[in-house]
U-box domain-containing protein
Amino acid sequence: GNELFQRKNYQEATAHYTEAIEKNPNDPRVFSNRAQCHIYLGNLPKGLEDAEKCIELDPTFLKGYVRKANVQFLMEYYESALATYIEGLKCDPNNLVVINGLRRCAAYINRSNGGDVGPDDLEDILGNVSSDNDLRNKLQKLMEEAAALKKEASDERLRRIESERMARTSEDLYLNQVQQRREAEECLSKIEQEFQQLKVRQDEVSEEFQKATEHNENLQHQLTETIRALESMRGNATSASPSSSGSVLDENRIPSYFICPISQDVMNDPHIAADGFTYEGDFIRSWFSTGSDTSPMTNLPLEHDELIPNIALRSAIQEWLQQQNVAPG
């Protein structure tokens, strides 16, 4: 059993100690060893039972008191553990294990009930032992040490509380700064997004304005051509004579702006291109369908291939053709 105990195989060691007890139930050492195995295995009630049996068999065997006090301490019976250690002092008043156990119990008692345990409080625990002056002096010294430890622990607790308070204050300040920085970053991000949206809108407005300007220029050009056509028609009507009616289609009398620059014929469906010139609709579309993206007149690149019907010029051409008694081709 001892070999297994040294190897920390407490379960099997317990079984061997049990066999030894069955062979010799009067050996307190075996009960002490089995009690310690029960303590390591967490079986405190059985450990307490073996420790009490050990003391019963030999009241002078110190390990029995130590085992019992350890079990009581682990079961949080601190006053009982303190009394057991005091009983053990009668076996060996200078034993450090017992003295340290007394200190530990006194400290836990102070911590649990918030008060000091003095000699008067110990009389109920000591019973007949309280008459031992040497033991009383030892206990008095222990309790004084426990009181000093308690004060030290209290001061340390106050320092820890203050330290924690300062730490929380610093943490709150830091978190507040982080929150303010986050809010500032979010605000800045929102402003940047709005600025980008305004910039995009500005570009859109500029593009729309440019298109409107181009459209206005095309309309102005269309109006100019229409005015020219009307003035020419008035001039032709004033200078026309009966003898000239047979030469309606004479090329020299056809206004040049009635003629498509591509087909060189009078236009039936005039359209204004991006270069500002007017072309016969079918011919300018055919020009674009071949892949050309330049002006037939200037040979410069066109910004787009959109066509605008020149309604005014078409009306003027139709009126002119009617005056010449020629049906539109």
Q: What stands out?
A: The longest helix spans residues 133-239. The chain has two domains: 2-158, 250-323. Residues 250-323 form a domain with the Herpes Virus-1 fold (CATH 3.30.40.10).
